[in-house]
Design a protein that fits this description.
mainly alpha; globular
Length: 81
């Protein structure tokens, strides 16, 4: 049984194209984290780090358009400093 407080909050704008792209590309290897879990600056660093991890795992890294769209989505919905 999972306590109610442990459920992951739904993603913001979950039906939008950027949210779906985020889930599709970043959720290949792990659950897509809620954008509120990090600040915009933290997301930029994390996305860059994950590009290397994707290569190591044999997963095609984000192309420039995917990276831009995903980072825009994460920044818009990021947690506050």
């Amino acid at each position: 049984m999972i306590p109610a407080g442990c459920r992951q909050a739904p993603l913001p704008d979950a039906d939008s194209a950027p949210a779906r792209l985020y889930v599709q590309r970043c959720g290949q290897c792990h659950n897509a984290y809620n954008p509120h879990s990090m600040t915009a600056a933290m997301w930029e660093t994390q996305v860059d780090l994950m590009q290397g991890k994707m290569r190591e795992a044999g997963v095609e890294p984000l192309n420039s358009e995917e990276r831009r769209e995903i980072l825009d989505y994460l920044r818009r919905n990021a947690g506050r400093d």
